[in-house]
């Protein structure tokens, strides 16, 4: 049997649960690190007196770094291993977050957010591959969706901390705390995270058999006499050209479009909901609660989609969520009312937007074989980051131009429909 078959036919071991737990924690830190600036935005804008367009560029800086990290750095994971890349990325994130707390100008803030984004972008694809490769097929969709539900959990934590820190101490301690927590993650990865079994079987580095058997022993599985050869369709040349090869090219391009469109709306919402709630007259603390509500919706949406994907089908449930996302984006931009109604609409909006978007990671992990999986996921994320970069920045210029908020939300409902259309054209034997 191949390593994939061995994992698929065995029960979940404590080691696999630990690996998924560490990956969940790391992705939670990513959510905390990226969205910290959204909660800090009103305070930074007030302290430095900067415009919304300048703030939009600061929002997008980390996303530029994440795009570069995903496209330029993360493909090396398919050569050096998932574990090494996760370790290096965690170190970069830690340095970037701590340094952000010391920024003295918008320029410094933009540069340091870009550095932190490089680490986050290079890590995310590796975490997706690691969870995909340690989860049995029957749990694979849910495990990947659970991994990416950690992102809004980190954002909720950042929001809860922000409500306590920002009014009393300003925005800098928020980034310092995020960097300190990232620092704690480094020894967790070093001591608790093994290398991916599928990577070891595919690349077969020195002492691959001994490393595979050591991991299998921790999973309470029998040792192997030799490393099983990879199936012929799993042995391809790495690199972006492999993603565009016959049989994959059309699905790859359509997956990139789906990521790009949904990323644009998602990061418009992540970046601007708290700031716009504050500008609409909500007190600072209530505006922070709006940010927490959106991330709670994102968390439960991701879990729901993961559960339903095995019953309805992955592509079908994602498309349903995308249509719901477009509807609630329109509703949120046109319905006012009490704080309770605002928080409920934000929750439902992000339930569909983030829930559907997170499903795309599972599609990407299933679409690509082992030796180009992280490259494939990384390039999908990188293509998506184009939308993520443009979303907050374009929204800033639209708002500065005087476009009403309800029309701004209407504009950002359209990409969700386009994402559903693009997803319909993605096909693969393991996508179900």
Topology:
Blueprint: H1 3-9, H2 14-48, H3 52-73, H4 77-80, H5 82-100, H6 106-134, H7 137-169, H8 172-192, H9 197-203, H10 208-218, H11 240-243, H12 249-279, H13 284-312, H14 314-334, H15 339-367, H16 370-400, H17 405-411, H18 414-424
How would you summarize what this structure contains?
The chain has helices spanning 3-9, 14-48, 52-73, 77-80, 82-100, 106-134, 137-169, 172-192, 197-203, 208-218, 240-243, 249-279, 284-312, 314-334, 339-367, 370-400, 405-411, 414-424.
Description:
With 432 residues, this protein is an all-alpha fold. The protein has one domain (3-424): MFS general substrate transporter like domains (Growth Hormone, Chain: A). It is 81% helix and 0% strand. The chain has 18 helices and no strands. Helix 3 (52-73) packs across helix 6, helix 7 packs across helix 15 and helix 14 packs antiparallel against helix 18. The chain is globular and about 70 Å long. It starts with a helix and ends in an 8-residue tail after the last helix.
């Amino acid at each position: 049997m191949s390593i994939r078959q061995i994992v698929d036919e065995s029960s979940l071991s404590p080691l696999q649960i630990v690996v998924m737990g560490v990956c969940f924690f790391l992705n939670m830190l990513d959510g905390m690190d990226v969205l910290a600036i959204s909660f800090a935005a009103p305070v930074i804008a007030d302290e430095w007196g900067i415009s919304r367009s300048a703030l939009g560029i600061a929002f997008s800086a980390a996303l530029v770094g994440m795009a570069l990290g995903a496209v330029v750095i993360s493909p090396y994971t398919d050569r050096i291993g998932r574990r090494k890349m996760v370790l290096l990325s965690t170190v970069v994130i830690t340095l970037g977050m701590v340094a952000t707390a010391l920024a003295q100008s918008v320029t410094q803030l933009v540069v340091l957010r870009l550095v932190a984004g490089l680490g986050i972008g290079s890590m995310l694809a590796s975490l997706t591959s690691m969870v995909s490769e340690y989860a049995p097929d029957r749990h694979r969709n849910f495990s990947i969706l659970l991994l990416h539900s950690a992102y809004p959990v980190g954002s909720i934590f950042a929001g809860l901390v922000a409500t306590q820190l920002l009014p009393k101490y300003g925005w800098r301690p928020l980034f310092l705390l995020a960097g300190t927590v990232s620092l704690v993650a480094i020894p967790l990865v070093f001591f608790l995270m093994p290398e991916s079994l599928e990577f070891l079987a595919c690349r077969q580095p020195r002492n691959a058999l001994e490393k595979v058997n050591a991991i299998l022993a921790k999973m309470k599985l029998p040792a192997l006499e030799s490393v099983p050869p990879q199936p012929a369709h799993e042995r391809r040349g790495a690199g972006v050209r492999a993603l565009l090869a016959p049989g994959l090219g059309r699905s790859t391009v359509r997956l990139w479009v789906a990521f790009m469109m949904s990323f644009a709306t998602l990061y418009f919402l992540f970046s601007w909901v708290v700031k716009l709630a504050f500008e609409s007259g909500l007190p600072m603390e209530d505006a922070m609660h709006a940010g927490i509500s959106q991330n709670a919706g994102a968390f439960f949406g991701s879990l729901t989609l993961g559960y339903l994907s095995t019953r309805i089908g992955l592509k079908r449930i994602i498309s349903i969520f995308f249509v719901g996302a477009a509807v609630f984006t329109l509703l949120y931009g046109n319905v006012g009312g009490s704080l309770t109604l605002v928080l409920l609409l934000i929750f439902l909006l992000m339930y569909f937007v983030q829930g559907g978007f997170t499903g795309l990671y599972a599609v990407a992990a299933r679409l690509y074989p082992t030796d180009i999986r992280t490259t494939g996921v990384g390039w999908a994320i990188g293509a998506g980051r184009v939308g993520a970069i443009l979303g907050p920045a374009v929204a800033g210029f639209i708002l500065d131009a005087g476009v009403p908020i309800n029309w701004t939300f209407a504009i950002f409902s359209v990409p969700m429909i386009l994402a559903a259309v693009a997803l319909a054209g993605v096909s693969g034997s393991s996508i179900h």
